Amino acid sequence: MKPVKVGLLGFGTVGCGVIKAFQKNGELLARRLGKPVELVRIADLDIVTPRSIQVDRTLLTTDVAAILDDPAIDIVIELIGGYEPARTFVLRAIANGKHVVTANKALLALHGEEIFKAAEQAGVDVMYEASVGGGIPIISAIKENLGVNNFQSVFGILNGTCNYILTRMTDEGEDFAKVLADAQTRGYAEADPTFDVEGIDTAHKLSLLSSLCFGTRVDFKSIYTEGITRITALDIQYAREFGYKFKLLAIGKRVNGEIEVRVHPTMLPLDHPLANVDGVFNGVRLMGDFVGPVMLYGYGAGMDATASAVMGDVMAITRNLRAGISTRTPAMGCPQASVEHLAVKPMEELVSSYYLRVFAKDQPGVLAQIAGVLGKYRISIESMIQPLRHAADAVPIVLMTHEAVERDVRAALAEIDQLDAIRDKSLFVRIEEGLE
Questions:
Q1: pLDDT in tens, 116-169
Q2: pTM of the predicted model, to two decimals?
Q3: How far apart are CA 101 and CA 354, in angstroms?
Q4: Which residues are identified as catalytic?
Q5: Residue 195 sits in a domain of what CATH number?
Q6: Number of domains in the chain
Q7: Cα 75 from chain centroid (whole Å)
Q8: Which end of the chain, N or C, is less packed with Cβ atoms under 10 Å?
Q9: Residue of 261, 161, 162 whose CA lies nearest to 220
Protein backbone atom coordinates (compact mmCIF):
# COMPACT_ATOMS: atom_id res chain seq x y z
CA MET A 1 0.00 0.00 0.00
CA LYS A 2 1.35 3.40 -0.96
CA PRO A 3 2.52 5.24 2.18
CA VAL A 4 1.56 8.79 3.15
CA LYS A 5 4.74 10.85 2.97
CA VAL A 6 5.52 13.60 5.45
CA GLY A 7 8.04 16.43 5.38
CA LEU A 8 9.12 18.24 8.56
CA LEU A 9 10.15 21.90 8.73
CA GLY A 10 12.05 22.48 11.97
CA PHE A 11 14.55 20.23 13.73
CA GLY A 12 14.22 21.75 17.20
CA THR A 13 12.82 20.35 20.44
CA VAL A 14 9.31 19.56 19.18
CA GLY A 15 10.70 18.41 15.84
CA CYS A 16 12.82 15.88 17.69
CA GLY A 17 9.68 14.74 19.50
CA VAL A 18 7.91 14.18 16.19
CA ILE A 19 10.86 12.20 14.81
CA LYS A 20 10.88 10.15 18.01
CA ALA A 21 7.18 9.36 17.53
CA PHE A 22 7.80 8.15 13.99
CA GLN A 23 10.75 6.03 15.10
CA LYS A 24 9.17 4.56 18.22
CA ASN A 25 5.53 4.15 17.16
CA GLY A 26 5.67 3.95 13.37
CA GLU A 27 4.32 0.40 13.33
CA LEU A 28 1.55 1.39 15.74
CA LEU A 29 0.57 4.26 13.43
CA ALA A 30 0.39 1.98 10.40
CA ARG A 31 -1.71 -0.57 12.30
CA ARG A 32 -4.16 2.02 13.58
CA LEU A 33 -4.40 3.85 10.28
CA GLY A 34 -4.41 0.84 7.99
CA LYS A 35 -1.80 2.69 5.93
CA PRO A 36 1.90 3.39 6.48
CA VAL A 37 3.06 6.94 7.20
CA GLU A 38 6.66 7.84 6.49
CA LEU A 39 8.79 10.83 7.47
CA VAL A 40 10.81 11.30 4.29
CA ARG A 41 12.47 14.74 4.69
CA ILE A 42 13.55 17.08 7.51
CA ALA A 43 14.54 20.69 6.77
CA ASP A 44 16.35 23.09 9.08
CA LEU A 45 18.96 25.82 8.75
CA ASP A 46 21.15 23.87 11.18
CA ILE A 47 21.47 20.17 10.42
CA VAL A 48 24.94 19.84 11.99
CA THR A 49 24.43 20.45 15.72
CA PRO A 50 23.84 17.16 17.58
CA ARG A 51 20.25 16.63 18.72
CA SER A 52 18.65 14.50 21.41
CA ILE A 53 17.74 11.86 18.82
CA GLN A 54 19.60 9.99 16.08
CA VAL A 55 18.41 10.64 12.50
CA ASP A 56 19.29 9.12 9.17
CA ARG A 57 21.46 11.91 7.72
CA THR A 58 20.05 11.36 4.22
CA LEU A 59 16.70 12.74 5.45
CA LEU A 60 18.22 16.11 6.39
CA THR A 61 18.34 19.19 4.18
CA THR A 62 18.74 22.93 4.51
CA ASP A 63 16.61 23.49 1.42
CA VAL A 64 12.89 23.88 2.23
CA ALA A 65 12.06 23.52 -1.47
CA ALA A 66 12.99 19.86 -1.12
CA ILE A 67 9.84 19.54 0.97
CA LEU A 68 7.54 22.32 -0.21
CA ASP A 69 7.96 21.59 -3.93
CA ASP A 70 8.25 17.80 -3.82
CA PRO A 71 5.04 16.41 -5.40
CA ALA A 72 5.52 13.10 -3.54
CA ILE A 73 5.10 14.72 -0.11
CA ASP A 74 1.49 14.74 1.13
CA ILE A 75 1.77 16.47 4.52
CA VAL A 76 4.05 19.29 5.68
CA ILE A 77 4.63 19.73 9.42
CA GLU A 78 5.66 23.32 10.24
CA LEU A 79 7.57 23.62 13.53
CA ILE A 80 9.91 26.54 12.86
CA GLY A 81 7.74 29.04 14.76
CA GLY A 82 7.40 32.80 14.39
CA TYR A 83 5.67 34.80 11.69
CA GLU A 84 8.12 34.71 8.80
CA PRO A 85 9.29 32.72 6.96
CA ALA A 86 6.70 30.35 8.48
CA ARG A 87 3.81 32.19 6.80
CA THR A 88 5.48 32.06 3.38
CA PHE A 89 6.34 28.38 3.75
CA VAL A 90 2.84 27.39 4.88
CA LEU A 91 1.17 29.30 2.02
CA ARG A 92 3.59 27.76 -0.46
CA ALA A 93 2.82 24.27 0.82
CA ILE A 94 -0.91 24.96 0.49
CA ALA A 95 -0.48 26.36 -3.03
CA ASN A 96 1.31 23.11 -3.94
CA GLY A 97 -1.66 21.08 -2.74
CA LYS A 98 -0.11 19.83 0.49
CA HIS A 99 -1.87 19.42 3.80
CA VAL A 100 -0.31 21.31 6.71
CA VAL A 101 0.10 20.53 10.40
CA THR A 102 1.46 23.32 12.59
CA ALA A 103 2.07 24.14 16.24
CA ASN A 104 2.55 27.82 15.45
CA LYS A 105 -0.05 29.74 17.49
CA ALA A 106 1.60 33.11 16.82
CA LEU A 107 1.40 32.56 13.06
CA LEU A 108 -2.27 31.55 13.17
CA ALA A 109 -3.26 34.29 15.62
CA LEU A 110 -2.00 36.93 13.19
CA HIS A 111 -2.34 35.26 9.77
CA GLY A 112 -4.86 32.50 10.38
CA GLU A 113 -7.59 34.08 8.26
CA GLU A 114 -5.32 34.28 5.22
CA ILE A 115 -4.01 30.74 5.72
CA PHE A 116 -7.41 29.16 6.35
CA LYS A 117 -8.93 30.85 3.30
CA ALA A 118 -6.06 29.66 1.14
CA ALA A 119 -6.46 26.11 2.46
CA GLU A 120 -10.21 26.09 1.79
CA GLN A 121 -9.69 27.33 -1.77
CA ALA A 122 -6.98 24.74 -2.38
CA GLY A 123 -9.02 21.92 -0.87
CA VAL A 124 -6.38 20.97 1.71
CA ASP A 125 -6.37 20.68 5.49
CA VAL A 126 -4.60 22.92 7.97
CA MET A 127 -4.58 21.35 11.43
CA TYR A 128 -3.14 22.95 14.55
CA GLU A 129 -3.96 20.92 17.66
CA ALA A 130 -0.47 21.45 19.08
CA SER A 131 -0.79 25.24 18.92
CA VAL A 132 -2.87 25.40 22.13
CA GLY A 133 -2.37 23.39 25.29
CA GLY A 134 0.45 21.12 24.16
CA GLY A 135 -0.87 17.58 24.33
CA ILE A 136 -4.38 18.55 25.47
CA PRO A 137 -6.85 17.72 22.64
CA ILE A 138 -8.83 20.94 22.99
CA ILE A 139 -8.97 22.05 19.32
CA SER A 140 -10.39 18.76 18.05
CA ALA A 141 -12.81 18.59 20.99
CA ILE A 142 -14.29 21.99 20.10
CA LYS A 143 -14.45 21.29 16.35
CA GLU A 144 -15.61 17.69 16.53
CA ASN A 145 -17.12 16.07 19.62
CA LEU A 146 -18.53 19.26 21.14
CA GLY A 147 -19.47 20.88 17.83
CA VAL A 148 -23.23 20.90 18.52
CA ASN A 149 -22.80 23.29 21.44
CA ASN A 150 -23.21 27.03 21.54
CA PHE A 151 -20.33 27.92 23.83
CA GLN A 152 -20.94 30.58 26.45
CA SER A 153 -17.36 30.71 27.68
CA VAL A 154 -13.85 29.37 27.46
CA PHE A 155 -11.33 29.88 30.25
CA GLY A 156 -7.78 28.66 30.19
CA ILE A 157 -4.46 28.48 31.96
CA LEU A 158 -2.46 28.29 28.76
CA ASN A 159 1.12 29.21 29.61
CA GLY A 160 3.20 26.78 31.63
CA THR A 161 5.94 29.33 32.36
CA CYS A 162 3.55 31.77 34.05
CA ASN A 163 1.74 28.99 35.85
CA TYR A 164 5.01 27.59 37.16
CA ILE A 165 6.10 31.04 38.39
CA LEU A 166 2.79 31.77 40.12
CA THR A 167 2.73 28.30 41.67
CA ARG A 168 6.23 28.76 43.11
CA MET A 169 5.36 32.22 44.38
CA THR A 170 2.25 30.79 46.05
CA ASP A 171 3.92 27.75 47.59
CA GLU A 172 7.20 29.35 48.65
CA GLY A 173 6.37 33.03 49.21
CA GLU A 174 9.12 34.17 46.84
CA ASP A 175 8.84 37.28 44.66
CA PHE A 176 8.48 37.27 40.89
CA ALA A 177 12.06 38.20 39.93
CA LYS A 178 13.66 35.44 41.98
CA VAL A 179 11.30 32.72 40.75
CA LEU A 180 11.68 33.87 37.14
CA ALA A 181 15.48 33.66 37.38
CA ASP A 182 15.23 30.14 38.77
CA ALA A 183 12.72 29.16 36.05
CA GLN A 184 15.20 30.36 33.43
CA THR A 185 17.97 28.29 35.03
CA ARG A 186 15.74 25.21 34.97
CA GLY A 187 14.73 25.77 31.35
CA TYR A 188 11.06 26.55 32.14
CA ALA A 189 11.45 30.16 30.97
CA GLU A 190 13.21 31.64 27.95
CA ALA A 191 16.20 33.95 28.26
CA ASP A 192 13.80 36.66 27.03
CA PRO A 193 10.54 35.69 28.77
CA THR A 194 8.49 38.65 27.47
CA PHE A 195 6.04 36.64 25.34
CA ASP A 196 5.26 34.43 28.33
CA VAL A 197 5.20 36.73 31.35
CA GLU A 198 3.48 39.62 29.55
CA GLY A 199 0.63 37.35 28.44
CA ILE A 200 1.33 37.53 24.69
CA ASP A 201 1.69 33.76 24.23
CA THR A 202 -1.57 33.22 26.12
CA ALA A 203 -3.34 35.83 23.98
CA HIS A 204 -2.21 34.08 20.79
CA LYS A 205 -3.83 30.90 22.07
CA LEU A 206 -6.99 32.67 23.23
CA SER A 207 -7.37 34.13 19.74
CA LEU A 208 -7.61 30.61 18.35
CA LEU A 209 -9.81 29.15 21.10
CA SER A 210 -12.31 32.01 21.11
CA SER A 211 -12.49 32.04 17.29
CA LEU A 212 -13.37 28.34 17.34
CA CYS A 213 -15.79 28.49 20.27
CA PHE A 214 -17.74 31.50 19.05
CA GLY A 215 -17.53 30.93 15.29
CA THR A 216 -15.97 34.33 14.64
CA ARG A 217 -12.64 35.83 13.72
CA VAL A 218 -10.96 37.20 16.80
CA ASP A 219 -8.19 39.63 15.90
CA PHE A 220 -5.24 39.05 18.22
CA LYS A 221 -4.81 42.82 18.53
CA SER A 222 -8.33 43.13 19.95
CA ILE A 223 -7.49 40.95 22.96
CA TYR A 224 -6.79 42.87 26.15
CA THR A 225 -3.45 41.53 27.37
CA GLU A 226 -1.76 42.01 30.73
CA GLY A 227 1.04 39.98 32.29
CA ILE A 228 2.06 38.88 35.77
CA THR A 229 5.10 41.08 36.39
CA ARG A 230 3.38 43.35 38.95
CA ILE A 231 2.08 40.52 41.12
CA THR A 232 4.05 40.24 44.37
CA ALA A 233 4.35 37.58 47.04
CA LEU A 234 2.40 39.92 49.32
CA ASP A 235 -0.51 40.05 46.86
CA ILE A 236 -0.56 36.26 46.74
CA GLN A 237 -0.59 36.11 50.54
CA TYR A 238 -3.44 38.61 50.80
CA ALA A 239 -5.42 36.76 48.13
CA ARG A 240 -5.14 33.56 50.15
CA GLU A 241 -6.49 35.38 53.22
CA PHE A 242 -9.54 36.36 51.16
CA GLY A 243 -9.89 32.76 49.91
CA TYR A 244 -8.48 33.21 46.40
CA LYS A 245 -5.53 32.19 44.24
CA PHE A 246 -3.75 34.04 41.42
CA LYS A 247 -3.68 32.60 37.90
CA LEU A 248 -2.87 34.12 34.52
CA LEU A 249 -6.15 33.38 32.80
CA ALA A 250 -7.32 33.51 29.19
CA ILE A 251 -11.00 34.44 29.26
CA GLY A 252 -13.46 34.31 26.40
CA LYS A 253 -17.18 34.94 26.89
CA ARG A 254 -20.13 35.43 24.57
CA VAL A 255 -22.70 37.76 26.08
CA ASN A 256 -25.61 39.51 24.34
CA GLY A 257 -24.14 39.21 20.86
CA GLU A 258 -20.70 40.46 21.89
CA ILE A 259 -17.59 38.65 23.04
CA GLU A 260 -15.16 39.36 25.83
CA VAL A 261 -11.59 38.30 25.08
CA ARG A 262 -8.99 39.12 27.69
CA VAL A 263 -5.79 37.83 29.25
CA HIS A 264 -4.73 39.01 32.68
CA PRO A 265 -3.90 37.91 36.23
CA THR A 266 -7.14 36.74 37.79
CA MET A 267 -8.14 35.77 41.31
CA LEU A 268 -10.03 32.48 41.46
CA PRO A 269 -11.74 30.93 44.50
CA LEU A 270 -9.48 28.32 46.09
CA ASP A 271 -12.01 25.57 45.40
CA HIS A 272 -12.34 26.30 41.68
CA PRO A 273 -10.96 23.48 39.46
CA LEU A 274 -8.69 25.85 37.53
CA ALA A 275 -7.21 27.16 40.79
CA ASN A 276 -5.71 23.71 41.31
CA VAL A 277 -3.95 23.54 37.94
CA ASP A 278 -0.38 24.09 39.11
CA GLY A 279 3.20 23.95 37.92
CA VAL A 280 3.78 23.65 34.18
CA PHE A 281 0.36 22.11 33.59
CA ASN A 282 -2.37 23.76 31.50
CA GLY A 283 -6.12 23.57 31.91
CA VAL A 284 -9.03 24.66 29.74
CA ARG A 285 -12.65 24.92 30.87
CA LEU A 286 -15.52 25.20 28.40
CA MET A 287 -19.20 25.90 29.00
CA GLY A 288 -21.57 24.62 26.31
CA ASP A 289 -25.35 24.90 26.22
CA PHE A 290 -25.78 21.11 25.86
CA VAL A 291 -22.70 19.58 27.46
CA GLY A 292 -22.43 22.04 30.36
CA PRO A 293 -18.98 22.50 31.92
CA VAL A 294 -16.08 20.52 30.48
CA MET A 295 -12.49 20.76 31.64
CA LEU A 296 -9.35 19.37 29.98
CA TYR A 297 -6.03 19.21 31.79
CA GLY A 298 -2.49 18.15 30.91
CA TYR A 299 1.01 19.19 29.93
CA GLY A 300 0.84 22.45 28.00
CA ALA A 301 4.26 22.15 26.41
CA GLY A 302 7.27 19.87 26.13
CA MET A 303 8.72 17.69 23.41
CA ASP A 304 6.60 14.57 23.84
CA ALA A 305 3.26 16.17 24.74
CA THR A 306 3.39 18.59 21.81
CA ALA A 307 4.60 15.89 19.44
CA SER A 308 1.60 13.79 20.50
CA ALA A 309 -0.75 16.56 19.33
CA VAL A 310 1.16 17.03 16.07
CA MET A 311 0.98 13.33 15.32
CA GLY A 312 -2.73 13.25 16.13
CA ASP A 313 -3.24 15.77 13.32
CA VAL A 314 -1.04 13.74 10.97
CA MET A 315 -3.17 10.70 11.72
CA ALA A 316 -6.42 12.62 11.10
CA ILE A 317 -5.19 13.79 7.70
CA THR A 318 -3.96 10.29 6.85
CA ARG A 319 -7.40 8.86 7.61
CA ASN A 320 -8.91 11.46 5.28
CA LEU A 321 -6.45 10.55 2.53
CA ARG A 322 -7.18 6.86 2.98
CA ALA A 323 -10.90 7.62 2.57
CA GLY A 324 -10.23 9.84 -0.45
CA ILE A 325 -11.49 13.02 1.18
CA SER A 326 -10.10 16.30 2.53
CA THR A 327 -11.29 19.32 4.50
CA ARG A 328 -13.89 17.14 6.24
CA THR A 329 -13.60 19.45 9.25
CA PRO A 330 -12.77 23.04 8.28
CA ALA A 331 -9.92 24.77 10.09
CA MET A 332 -12.34 27.17 11.80
CA GLY A 333 -14.83 24.42 12.59
CA CYS A 334 -17.17 25.78 9.92
CA PRO A 335 -16.79 26.93 6.29
CA GLN A 336 -15.32 30.39 5.84
CA ALA A 337 -18.66 31.67 4.53
CA SER A 338 -20.31 30.72 7.84
CA VAL A 339 -17.91 32.63 10.07
CA GLU A 340 -19.78 35.35 11.96
CA HIS A 341 -18.67 38.86 12.81
CA LEU A 342 -19.04 39.50 16.54
CA ALA A 343 -17.99 42.75 18.15
CA VAL A 344 -15.46 42.66 20.98
CA LYS A 345 -16.74 44.27 24.15
CA PRO A 346 -14.52 47.21 25.17
CA MET A 347 -12.46 46.44 28.24
CA GLU A 348 -13.58 49.59 30.00
CA GLU A 349 -17.15 48.25 29.99
CA LEU A 350 -16.22 45.07 31.85
CA VAL A 351 -18.16 44.47 35.04
CA SER A 352 -16.25 42.55 37.70
CA SER A 353 -15.33 42.42 41.35
CA TYR A 354 -11.83 43.68 42.06
CA TYR A 355 -8.87 43.24 44.37
CA LEU A 356 -7.22 46.61 45.11
CA ARG A 357 -3.84 47.11 46.79
CA VAL A 358 -2.72 50.61 47.76
CA PHE A 359 0.49 51.63 49.58
CA ALA A 360 -0.12 54.69 51.72
CA LYS A 361 1.38 56.66 54.58
CA ASP A 362 0.45 55.27 57.97
CA GLN A 363 -1.46 58.33 59.13
CA PRO A 364 -5.00 59.18 60.21
CA GLY A 365 -7.61 59.87 57.56
CA VAL A 366 -5.97 58.01 54.65
CA LEU A 367 -8.50 55.20 54.55
CA ALA A 368 -11.33 57.72 54.64
CA GLN A 369 -9.81 59.54 51.66
CA ILE A 370 -9.52 56.31 49.68
CA ALA A 371 -13.04 55.23 50.55
CA GLY A 372 -14.29 58.67 49.54
CA VAL A 373 -12.75 58.41 46.07
CA LEU A 374 -14.12 54.91 45.59
CA GLY A 375 -17.57 56.08 46.62
CA LYS A 376 -17.37 58.95 44.16
CA TYR A 377 -16.99 56.37 41.36
CA ARG A 378 -19.76 54.08 42.67
CA ILE A 379 -17.36 51.40 43.92
CA SER A 380 -18.41 49.73 47.16
CA ILE A 381 -16.02 47.86 49.47
CA GLU A 382 -16.87 44.26 50.31
CA SER A 383 -13.97 43.51 52.68
CA MET A 384 -10.60 44.89 53.70
CA ILE A 385 -7.25 43.88 55.15
CA GLN A 386 -4.83 46.41 56.62
CA PRO A 387 -1.66 44.38 57.22
CA LEU A 388 1.44 45.35 59.18
CA ARG A 389 3.66 48.18 58.01
CA HIS A 390 5.39 47.27 54.72
CA ALA A 391 8.09 49.96 54.76
CA ALA A 392 9.28 52.68 57.11
CA ASP A 393 6.58 55.14 56.04
CA ALA A 394 4.04 53.00 54.18
CA VAL A 395 1.37 50.43 54.90
CA PRO A 396 -0.58 48.35 52.37
CA ILE A 397 -4.33 48.81 52.27
CA VAL A 398 -5.96 45.80 50.60
CA LEU A 399 -9.59 45.89 49.51
CA MET A 400 -12.08 43.61 47.81
CA THR A 401 -14.89 45.39 45.99
CA HIS A 402 -18.37 44.43 44.97
CA GLU A 403 -19.01 44.40 41.22
CA ALA A 404 -17.95 47.60 39.51
CA VAL A 405 -17.33 48.89 35.99
CA GLU A 406 -13.70 48.75 34.89
CA ARG A 407 -13.81 52.33 33.61
CA ASP A 408 -14.77 53.52 37.10
CA VAL A 409 -12.10 51.42 38.82
CA ARG A 410 -9.36 52.77 36.61
CA ALA A 411 -10.53 56.36 37.09
CA ALA A 412 -10.77 55.93 40.87
CA LEU A 413 -7.28 54.46 41.20
CA ALA A 414 -5.81 57.18 38.98
CA GLU A 415 -7.30 59.74 41.38
CA ILE A 416 -6.21 57.80 44.47
CA ASP A 417 -2.64 57.60 43.18
CA GLN A 418 -2.54 61.41 43.09
CA LEU A 419 -3.22 61.70 46.82
CA ASP A 420 -0.28 62.98 48.85
CA ALA A 421 -0.46 59.97 51.16
CA ILE A 422 0.04 57.37 48.40
CA ARG A 423 3.54 55.93 48.14
CA ASP A 424 3.37 53.66 45.06
CA LYS A 425 1.19 52.97 42.04
CA SER A 426 -1.89 51.04 43.09
CA LEU A 427 -2.63 47.56 41.78
CA PHE A 428 -5.98 46.13 40.78
CA VAL A 429 -6.77 42.54 39.81
CA ARG A 430 -10.04 41.20 38.47
CA ILE A 431 -11.88 38.44 40.31
CA GLU A 432 -13.79 35.62 38.62
CA GLU A 433 -16.15 33.49 40.65
CA GLY A 434 -18.21 30.83 38.91
CA LEU A 435 -16.65 31.18 35.45
CA GLU A 436 -19.84 29.87 33.89
A1: 999 999 999 999 999 999 999 999 999 999 999 999 999 999 999 999 999 999
A2: 0.93
A3: 41
A4: 205
A5: 3.30.360.10
A6: 3
A7: 26
A8: N
A9: 261
